[in-house]
Design a protein that fits this description.
By secondary structure, this protein is an alpha+beta fold. The chain folds into 2 domains: 122 residues, no CATH class; 81 residues, no CATH class. Helix content is 20%, strand content 40%. The chain contains 4 helices and 13 strands. The strands form 4 sheets. It has a 4-stranded antiparallel beta sheet. The radius of gyration is 20 Å and the shape is elongated. The N terminus is likely disordered.
Amino acid sequence: MISRFLLPSIGVALWLGTALGQSFEVTSVKPNKSGSNSSHTSTTDHGITAENVSLKQLIQRAYGVADYSLSGPVWLGDDKFDIAAKQPDGTPKGQTRTMLQSLLAERFGLAVHFEQKSLSGYALIAGKKPPVLHDKPAGAGTNTNTGRGTIKGTNVSMADLAGLLSRQLDQPVQDQTGLPGVLDISLEWSPDPAQADDRATSLFTALQEQLGLKLQAQKVTVEVLVVDHAERVPTEN
């Protein structure tokens, strides 16, 4: 089965998965009835294995979208599955996601498209004393490490920081600082509700005091993955 989705905003049809010859060599999809709240996913050069994952989790992994940027039926997160998929030898790195998209189209009849939507979120803006950024050294990469109440990184752009903040808040954050370049950051705040009014307020304060930046609540336009069709019961192995 060939998966196809449309970007309505530009009217271009894109063909994925088997149309590109990118599909797993062997796949197994089985219902998981354990009732456990924990799940595990592992991706290696040999393929992907997942235990006790929902179709929603698989879609998010396949398309690299956050919870707020996925629109589909509520039941996507209900049923759980175990998945084992072996990829052909010599598969180029970075193709696992595309092959997972193909698997979801073949086994769950998944059909999706992207569209622009306006959502409640935040704009990352410069404060009164914004940070001084520098050019990214030639050949240097960006390294980040996030934890409970911490964001640390080297050679981090404002767009990178907006993405990290988005994951912390589970809401879209859009870079509107207008600041080019990169910087090294060490941002710390208290995630403990007993020590602050709430996590968001604590993070907002730390961002302003430690980095000279602000988060301003506003509607932001983001690309949302819309599920047009999905089967609740996958086809047999």
